[in-house]
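User: I'm new to structure prediction. If I give you an amino acid sequence, what do you actually give back? Let's try with this one:
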Amino acid sequence: MSDTIKVGDFLVIKRQKYTKLQKFTSLDTTVHLGKDQIELRALENQPYHSTFQLVPKEGRNRRLYSLDPVTEIRNLKELLIKESGVDNRNIVDDRSTQNLSAEEIQKLREECESSSEIVGKLVENSKSFASKTEYSQEKYLKRKEKKYFEYVQIKRPSIRLIADIYWRLDVDKVMGVRFDTLSQIISYSGVCSVGNFLLYESGTNGLLPAAFLNSIGAGSSGRVVHLHPGNVAQKQALQAMDFPQEQLERCISVNIYSVLRHFHQSKQKESEKGVENGKEVVIAEGGDEENHKRKIESSEDDGPEAKQPKLEEVAKKPPQQWELDNAAACELMGEKFDALVIVAKEHPQNIIKALLPFVKPSRPVVVFSTTREILTECYMELKAAANVTYLRITSNWMRQYQILPNRTHPDVTMSANSGYLLTGYTIR
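Assistant: Good question. You get back a string of structure tokens that encode the predicted 3D arrangement of the chain. For your 428 residues, that looks like this:
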């Protein structure tokens, strides 16, 4: 894994609190941040976590920018706050406090090279800025800086960043799995560098298998069988994490219906073969007539035609990749797994029944759903079957806090719920 940015990498582009996942496909790649279009050509061979300034490109499109590396960002608080008022009781917050008109501000945006220059001009022409308290001045600067901010930071993708980006864009992209719930799933399931783990998920853009592989780590012996209901597994998060090839190969993605059919058909064939072998032994141990009859039948089958290979076998095609993946997954299913995790859009009751026999005793089972009633039904079913013990239904409630001197408080707006978890441990 390189410490510098290369063509083909996935990048996390951060502009203040806004983050976006983008693939650096080629040197001509551009990214849209709001109404701004940014060329990424200058990123090649630059170290991750570098900060770049947006430089307007000459031409008719005033929203097209190139990137220029910078070592530090100007601190507007230190530059512009010279004096402050005691309180804001005499301040009237209306447009009359700003001497610049909307046309003049737009002209400033076109002429000034940096956001600090624009904000500085706004402060100079504000009648009320110097009378505001220091706290109000900081809020004003942050609000204006957010509007005219001209810097971006390029970060390497991580599970936390990807989970937050997906959650912010569309909760359904991750099936309602917030980052705190994801951490609980990893913790309850005990995913680590040793063992085999069984995961079923029906659409999280690859976030769940990526989180499993991240916990297993590179150069370890841990393996994941990733079951999904579609023809092709969603793997965007897996690709964005840029895991080593040997680590990616330890995640086997297969269709759940296909692999279960493959496994049970293989078991049935082995059983039928065992029965046939048993009959042959009985015949061999029978009387002389039976032995003689068996020899005649054997000699008839060994004619010249029997020695010729069948045309179908000669023309048999090599197995496809999904068949190889099914065979590898079935081998691990025969060995059984150290944990079972189910994150399903559909009702998970039948999925639990189908997959529980592949889990070793005294191993964790974790089921996620956005609906408590669904997990309650699964709870009652497992309780009656008595094959899983220490059953619990839990819900996470995480709240962000702002930690500043004399201004520590929880975020006003937040997501109230991130689904429910049904957890337990298998028994014999």
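You can read the tokens as a compact description of the fold. Here is one thing that stands out. The longest strand covers residues 388-395.
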